[in-house]
Structures are given as structure tokens and as C-alpha cells.
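Hi R.,

Here's the chain you asked about this morning:
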Amino acid sequence: MNTLENQTRFESILERAVETRLAAVSRRSLLRSSVLAGGALALGGSVRSAFARQDAGTPEADDAAPFAGPIDVLNYALTLEHLEAAFYRDGLAAIGEAGITGLGFQASVFDWLNEIGAHEASHVTTLTDVITQLGGTPVQEGVYDFGYADAAGFLQVALALEDTGVAAYGGAAQYLIAEDQLLTAALTIHGVEARHAAYLAILNGQNPFPDAFNAPLTPAEVLEIATPFIQQ
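And the predicted structure, written out as C-alpha cells:
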């Protein structure tokens, strides 16, 4: 199955998820969840707020949960996808093919890294569309500083981002447990992120599958990792 067919299949899953959710939940409820999920984002326009815990005093927020509803979870995922998409887009343009081949890799590695970047951009587009169709307000791309100085540093940060993304999806999946098709769609991203992480581990000379089980990260833990990269 080629890339276009994979993307079409993924988008089809998400379309079915949207249709199912819109049939099951009233628009009023969706808009209310959107306001709760987007309210923090409006404060200063900072993407950091996408990770913020919802006010426990609101009816829709569970004291034990960091998300008010599915739209909130999707915006959390979108925040991470923006981070990754911008990283590959800007980083690969800056270091160029010569930066990668200068490390002793074949030129095809640069092509594969661009393919990873294209995946992240596709995730951004699709999540943005789904959040919009569900009546939510998608979080926007922020301003980032990834702190690397050369191609070797770029690959190290890439691995850190991909590992974080895998663990973040794993930790957030429980909050979509009542949304079968949204959960399935999110897991199709999770699987791709895991493949990215394994490839980046090999490029960094590390074990691509170090454990039998991948430990999930909570939103608070992800925030601690991601915050240094986010300038605004």
C-alpha cells in the first residue's frame, strides 16, 4: 500500500469517527467541550496551554482527568504534531542533505527524514480538520527553539521528540476509551510515531526496541519535556 493509499485510509477512519461522534453527541455539547478545551488556549495564545488541566469546578471536567473531553485530547495531540512538523520542516531545510551525508549516512536517509516530516505535516492537517468538524478550535503552531547546533544534534532531538510522541499517545489513549473510532484513529498515528522512533534510534546508534512494553507519559510529564522547545 503506497503513501497516498495509507493517507486516504487514515482520513477515511477519521471521517467515520467524526460522523459517529456527531451522530451520538449534540452540537451544543460539542461546542461546550470546545470552549473548555480552547479557553486556556486563548489566554496569551500560548500553545503551552494545550497541556493545561481543565478547571475541576466545571461540570464536564473530571477531577482525575487532565482533559475535559475528546476535543481537548485531540488538541493535545495536535500541539505535539505541530511541534514535530515544524521541527522537521525547518530543521531539514537548515541542515540540508549535506548535513546528513556528512555524518556518514547515505543520501536516502535525508529522504526518509523528509518522509517523516511529511507524515507529521499530514497528522497536523488531519487533526486540524477533525477538530474543526467536531466544532472545536484547533490549536495553532507556536514558535519553537529546538536547541541543536548541527546535524548530529538534530537527530538526537528528533529521537527525543518521537519517543515523547509515542509515550504521549500511549498516555492519552485512555481518555478516548469511550470514543471507539477516535481511539482507533489516534492509534493509527501512534503506530507511525513508533516506527519513526525506531528508525531515529537506529540513526542515533541506539536500540530501536529497548523494552517489551512502552511506558506511557502523562500530560504533565510531556509538558515538562516539551516546554523547553516552546517559545510562545
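The radius of gyration is 18 Å.

Let me know if you need anything else.
M.
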